[in-house]
């Protein structure tokens, strides 16, 4: 079994929980509370800014231009394409996207961002990519399942969201095969103990994906601290 297959097999139970989550079921059925949508977009804007910076760290640890090109393309994707699903949620909630770009960072976002930064600071390329992969992996799995179940109807207000993430699985884009291919290539360099650490990093990101939906659905904020709003990001 390839190491990447081992990762997705181990992540499957968490993916199942994500798919069952009321936020994801709300996307499937076309109904979500406005507060959940706006909380999600405010936090995801913050999260994706961190994600761009972690891609920059992956470029720093890349040995070839082919690897650099994979990450560079993804930075462009976040900056210029991944604004569309955010706009979809904002349109449904009836709020301006710009009004959600300075939200205070919630605890789950802090934890997930710091988990990726930790891999960037202390890990090798494989640790960084393993911490990042559950982000595209779980979204593509969700979107593909919803398409398969025929949930992206014209009546579903979240059709643009579903279609967007289902399409990033396009064979021409091939982001996930590239990420998993890179993980399998790098995995050759490490012993079993080290790969178990990488697997744990991957699984923690899977769990934080679940928590990201949960955090937005229940608007889980700091209990006692009143964090500052984010400056321009
Ligand atoms: C938290 C999170 N995970 C995955 C994606 C998909 O890129 C996203 N936008 N946000």
Automatic annotation (TrEMBL):
Keywords: Hydrolase, Thiamine biosynthesis. Pfam families: TENA_THI-4. Pathway: Cofactor biosynthesis; thiamine diphosphate biosynthesis. The keyword Plastid does not apply. It is an enzyme of class 3 (hydrolase). It catalyses: thiamine + H2O = 5-(2-hydroxyethyl)-4-methylthiazole + 4-amino-5-hydroxymethyl-2-methylpyrimidine + H(+); 4-amino-5-aminomethyl-2-methylpyrimidine + H2O = 4-amino-5-hydroxymethyl-2-methylpyrimidine + NH4(+). One of its GO terms (molecular function) is thiaminase activity. Residues 12-218 form the Thiaminase-2/PQQC domain. Its EC number is 3.5.99.2. Catalyzes an amino-pyrimidine hydrolysis reaction at the C5' of the pyrimidine moiety of thiamine compounds, a reaction that is part of a thiamine salvage pathway. Belongs to the TenA family. Homotetramer. NCBIfam families: salvage_TenA. This is Aminopyrimidine aminohydrolase. It comes from Lentilactobacillus raoultii.
């Amino acid at each position: 079994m390839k190491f990447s297959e081992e990762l997705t097999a181990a992540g499957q139970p968490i993916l199942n929980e994500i798919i069952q989550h009321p936020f994801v079921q709300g996307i499937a059925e076309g109904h979500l509370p406005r507060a959940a949508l706006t909380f999600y977009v405010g936090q995801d804007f913050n999260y994706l800014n961190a994600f761009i910076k972690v891609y920059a760290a992956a470029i720093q640890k890349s040995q070839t231009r082919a690897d650099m090109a994979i990450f560079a393309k993804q930075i462009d994707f976040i900056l210029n394409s991944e604004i569309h699903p955010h706009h979809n949620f904002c349109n449904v909630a009836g709020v301006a996207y710009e009004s959600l770009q300075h939200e205070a960072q919630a605890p789950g976002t802090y934890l997930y961002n710091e988990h990726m930064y930790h891999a960037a600071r202390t890990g090798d390329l494989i640790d960084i990519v393993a911490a990042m992969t559950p982000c595209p992996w779980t979204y593509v799995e969700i979107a593909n399942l919803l398409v398969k179940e025929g949930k992206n109807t014209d009546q579903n207000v979240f059709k643009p969201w579903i279609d967007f993430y289902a399409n990033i699985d396009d064979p021409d884009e091939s982001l996930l095969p590239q990420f998993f291919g890179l993980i399998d290539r790098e995995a050759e360099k490490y012993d079993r103990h080290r790969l178990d650490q990488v697997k744990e990093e991957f699984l923690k990101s899977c769990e934080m994906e679940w928590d990201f939906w949960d955090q937005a659905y229940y608007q889980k904020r700091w209990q006692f601290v009143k964090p500052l709003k984010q400056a321009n990001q």
